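In practice, a research group might receive sequence data for several interacting partners and want a quick structural hypothesis before committing to experiments. The following worked case mirrors that situation: the sequences arrive first, and a predicted assembly follows.
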Amino acid sequence: MRKILIFLLTVLQLSACNNTTRSTQKEEKTVTIPEFSQDSAYKYTQKQVDFGPRVPNTAAHDACAAYLSAELKRLGAEVIEQKADLTAFDGTVLKSMNIIGSFNPKAETRILLFSHWDSRPWADHDPKPANRKKPVMAANDGASGVGVLLEMARLMGKNLPTVGVDIIFFDTEDYGAPESFSGQNTEDSWCLGTQYWAKNPHVAGYTARFGILLDMVGGKQATFYREQASDNYAGSVVSNVWSQAKGLGFGQYFIDQKGGAITDDHIYVNQLRGIPSIDIIQYDPNSRSGFGFYWHTTQDVMANVDKNTLKAVGTTLMHVVYNEK
Ligand code: AHN
Ligand code: ZN
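A structural hypothesis for the assembly, expressed as tokens:
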């Protein structure tokens, strides 16, 4: 009797062990991660630039909004257009539209991916003073992040990830007071669309496991450092993204070192919505602004968008999203 019992226990243990092994193998096998196309992301970036500068209260802005919303829908997202009249630092009322595209809208576990889609009205950092009142084409500072997210949306629509994903294209990020402005200038003149959404989320009480902001993710040989607020609010998310990037061979883009502290859309998602959120933003310790040389100049054009950088960021984020359970 005793012998039989021991024998039975052993068999049970063995089969329990086997089961665990098998299900782990199964989980690993079922994670097939669709391949990110840098050509498609580049086309999506170009498509926005073709509208001209997407400066709030212009026809190009409205036409691009309609395109982004329709494209997300076409790709299979549930889309919400969040319109609001937002007041800029100088009192201008901006007809603003945040565009939200949801995949797996009923899934409880959600990941938030976001980027701003508007163009800065003034190239106030242009080396030539004569250019400083001209609008920014915003190929990198706007269109590149949205381009990567549209390509991800295309792939997710065809092959849903396990978790729910919300993509938000935020408006009126880049209407912050220009260098020449002498009036009261608060940091909060930036990121107006995000501030509005964070106080008025598209779903009451909206939250997500974590959030990732893409800002200027198409520069040639761009480098992304661990931005300070990202590290403070969501250090484990930064570590996860940077280590998956390194594992995929993109360690030359994702530098595992501390960068500066940047006022950007993720600040408000952290502070006002409590979603641990990070900023993937080109940081160049050797440039005067700290960003790419083209930043807030008339040089922020397609010639400075590199498919390889789009690919590094897009492939990494596809792995981050599809590896979430
Ligand atoms: C400031 O200039 C304070 N923050 C950078 C936010 C930004 C503007 N990102 C892109 N354009
Ligand atoms: Zn900007």
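Before designing any experiment, note the following. Helices lie at 2-30, 38-49, 59-74, 139-158, 192-199, 228-247, 265-273, 307-322. The pocket of N-[2-(1H-imidazol-4-yl)ethyl]acetamide (ligand 1) is lined by residues 141, 174, 190, 215, 262-264 (CB under 6 Å).
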